Amino acid sequence: MGVVNVTPDSFSDGGVWFDTPSAVAQGRLLRAQGAQWVDVGGESTRPGALRVDEQEELRRVLPVVRELAAEGVSVSIDTMRACVAAQAVAAGATMVNDVSGGLADPDMAAVVADSDAQFVAMHWRGHSTQMQSRATYADVVTQVCDELGERVLALTAAGIPAHRIILDPGLGFAKTFEHNWALLRGLDQVATLGHRMLIGASRKGFLGRVGRGADGVRDPHERDVATAVTSAYAADAGVWCLRVHDVVATVDALDVWAAWRGSEGAGA
Ligand code: PMM
After folding, report:
1. Which pTM does this prediction carry?
2. So what's the pLDDT on residue 12?
3. How far apart are CA 61 and CA 39, in angstroms?
4. Which CATH class is domain 2-199?
5. Counting atoms of ligand 1 from 1, which one is nearest the CA of 203?
6. What's the Cα-to-Cα distance from 6 to each of 121, 227, 231, rounded to whole Å?
7. Quick check: 178 pLDDT over 60?
8. Taking a C-beta distance cutoff of 8 angstroms, is the pair 28, 2 a contact?
9. Residue boundaries of the structural domains of the chain
10. Residue 46 CA: which ligand 1 atom is closest?
């Protein structure tokens, strides 16, 4: 899954695809590079980010979703708002990627239930201004699994068939660096929930610290090799979808992983 953030302030690509033609061109490019989904978002969720107004979010994402979907791209809409999800699905999106797992908007589950869209439910403990203060766990893997399991119960009770729900442990959302690594190590436990898994490790801060000692950190654009390596390990751990900014590197990594296993890769 390639990422197109139609935002001025996302941590790694904010402002780069902020106008519709650039965002559409980037979506096309990601698909040509081997992305099977293009995830379009109009609200930054980086730590500390303030919420964007609903009308502005719609203005940012809808023309991009409409144009890419019309060209046959499988589009995912990255939103926490039911109204944005509904309009994006009407414009051709076939997946709703909600970083709050349906918690931020009480109408989200019903909107998704009424559609045929896939639903990515990410582990979430609150909006960007609060989330890092909520990164407290006795056992992060067990608690994230329990909280995701509760979301599945609520979402299926609201009418979303279980087979349409994809689970994401929410790397970087109410997680410390060490929590992110623990969750990657614990993906087999997330898998026991019985859903397809998606992860969004791409360019995140914990990858920027690898190999850099206590205080060193790489810039977001210098994290694509680390992201691709993570993609291969995640695929090996059974992850169904990797949400990444640099599709070329992850497709390469998945091709190597697949060749190693003797099966077909992402680019095959
Ligand atoms: N991370 C970001 C945005 N959306 N969606 C899912 N499902 N999982 C994630 O980890 C995730 C996401 C933040 O990264 P960005 O600002 O580069 O989009």
Report:
1. 0.96
2. 83
3. 10
4. alpha beta
5. 17
6. 21, 21, 24
7. yes
8. no
9. 2-199
10. 16
**Number of separate helices (H) and strands (E) present in the chain:** 10, 8
Q: How far apart are CA 123 and CA 168, in angstroms?
A: 6
Instruction: Return d(Cα 160, Cα 68) in angstroms, integer.
Output: 25
Distance CA 183, CA 105 (A): 26
Catalytic annotation, residues: 204, 243
Q: In what order do the strands lie in the sheet with 75-78?
A: 2-5, 38-41, 75-78, 95-98, 118-122, 165-168, 196-199, 241-242
**Could you tell me if 4 and 30 are in contact, meaning their C-beta atoms sit under 8 angstroms apart?**
yes
Residue 81 CA to ligand 1 centre (angstroms): 15
Contact 7, 78 (CB under 8 A): no
Q: Is the CB of 12 under 6 A from ligand 1?
A: yes
Torsion, CA 156, CA 162, CA 165, CA 166, rounded to 10:
130
**Closest protein CA for atom 3 of ligand 1:** 45
The tens digit of pLDDT for each residue in 91-125 reads 999 999 999 999 999 999 999 999 999 999 999 99
Amino acid, single-letter form, for residue 24? V
Confirm or reject: Cβ of 98 under 6 Å from ligand 1: no
Q: How far is the CA of 262 from the centre of ligand 1 (A)?
A: 31
Return the ligand 1 atom nearest residue 5 CA. Answer: 18
